[in-house]
C-alpha cells in the first residue's frame, strides 16, 4: 500500500524530473534513456536479484550515464532508490520492487525523453540543452535548481517548478531577477520570452514581504497550479497503467477468439470426418447385402 506521503513525494519528483531532463543535450538524453531503460529491464526480469538493485556511485558508467545527467539522481529517487553508504562507499539501493510502478515509470521516462528531444532546435547542432529556455533558480538554502522550458511558457510555470522543489511548498516566496526586478502577481502570465528570461536566465528566490504588493496572491496561485500539475502528472501515470491494462485485455480477448475459432474448426472437421466414415460403413454394408 503506497502511503499519501510517498504519493506526494512521487508527484513532486515527476514535476522536477520533467523539467530537469530538457536541460541535457539531445545525445545525453538518449544515453540516459538507454541506460535507465536497461537498468529497469534487468530489475524487472530478476527483481529478487540484489545486484541489479544496487548502483555504485563510484562506477564510471553509472556516474556518467545515470547520475551526472540533469534529473538522473531525482529519477532514481522516483523509482525508489535510496542513497546509502556501504563500506564507506556511496551506493544507490532499491529495497522494494513494484513491477507495475516501474513499468509505468519506464514508459513515462520514454515520453519525457521524446518530448525533450523534440524541443531541441534543429538549426543549432551540438546544442548544450534541448530546452529553448534554461532557467537556474537559486534557493534561500543556497541550492541551485535548473529547469528547461519552452520560450512561450509563462513565469507561472517557473513558480510551479520551484514549488515542486522546495521543502516547504506553503512558504511564501518570490522570484527575483538580477537588478532586483521581482516577478509579482501581475507578471505571472508573461511569457519567458517577453520577460527577458530566454534563452537563459538566473533567478533568486527570496521571501516575500509586504512591500512586494501582490506576492502573496502570486504564491498562492503558484501553489494551486503546482498541486494541479502534480495531480496531472499522477493522472498521466494512471492513464499509462489503464492503457496498458486495456491493451492486455484486448490481447487476451483476441487470443481467446482465435482459440475458440480453432477449436470450432477442429470440432467441425472431426464431425464431418465422422459422417464420412459412417457413410462409407453404410455403403459397405449395403454392398455386402447385395452380394448375399
UniProtKB/TrEMBL annotation:
One matching Pfam family: PUB
CC per GO annotation: cytoplasm
SMART domains: PUG, UBX
Superkingdom as given in the UniProt entry: Eukaryota
Boundaries of every UBX domain copy: 128-205
Region (Disordered): 210-232
Basic and acidic residues bias spans: 220-232
Protein name: UBX domain-containing protein
Species the sequence originates in: Tribonema minus
Amino acid at each position: 500500500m503506497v502511503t499519501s506521503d510517498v504519493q506526494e513525494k512521487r508527484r513532486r519528483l515527476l514535476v522536477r524530473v520533467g523539467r530537469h531532463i530538457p536541460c541535457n543535450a539531445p545525445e545525453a538524453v538518449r544515453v540516459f534513456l538507454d541506460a535507465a531503460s536497461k537498468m529497469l529491464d534487468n530489475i524487472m526480469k530478476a527483481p529478487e536479484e540484489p545486484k541489479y538493485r544496487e548502483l555504485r556511485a563510484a562506477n564510471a558508467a553509472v556516474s556518467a550515464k545515470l547520475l551526472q545527467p540533469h534529473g538522473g539522481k531525482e529519477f532514481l529517487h522516483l523509482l525508489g532508490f535510496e542513497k546509502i553508504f556501504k563500506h564507506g562507499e556511496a551506493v544507490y539501493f532499491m529495497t522494494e520492487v513494484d513491477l507495475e510502478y516501474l513499468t509505468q515509470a519506464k514508459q513515462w521516462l520514454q515520453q519525457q525523453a521524446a518530448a525533450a528531444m523534440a524541443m531541441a532546435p534543429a538549426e543549432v547542432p551540438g546544442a548544450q540543452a534541448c530546452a529553448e529556455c534554461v532557467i537556474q533558480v537559486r534557493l534561500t538554502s543556497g541550492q541551485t535548481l535548473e529547469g528547461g522550458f519552452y520560450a512561450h511558457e509563462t513565469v507561472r510555470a517557473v513558480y510551479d517548478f520551484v514549488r515542486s522543489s522546495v521543502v516547504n511548498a506553503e512558504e511564501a516566496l518570490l522570484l527575483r531577477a538580477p537588478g532586483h526586478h521581482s516577478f509579482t502577481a501581475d507578471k505571472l502570465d508573461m511569457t519567458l520570452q517577453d520577460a527577458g528570461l530566454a534563452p537563459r536566465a538566473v533567478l533568486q528566490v527570496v521571501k516575500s514581504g509586504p512591500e512586494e504588493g501582490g506576492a502573496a496572491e502570486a504564491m498562492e496561485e503558484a501553489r494551486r497550479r503546482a498541486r494541479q500539475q502534480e495531480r496531472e502528472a499522477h493522472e498521466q501515470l494512471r492513464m499509462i497503467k489503464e492503457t496498458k491494462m486495456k491493451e492486455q485485455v484486448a490481447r487476451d480477448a483476441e487470443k481467446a477468439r482465435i482459440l475458440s475459432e480453432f477449436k470450432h474448426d477442429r470440432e467441425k472437421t472431426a464431425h464431418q470426418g465422422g459422417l464420412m466414415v459412417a457413410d462409407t460403413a453404410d455403403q459397405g454394408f449395403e454392398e455386402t447385402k447385395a452380394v448375399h
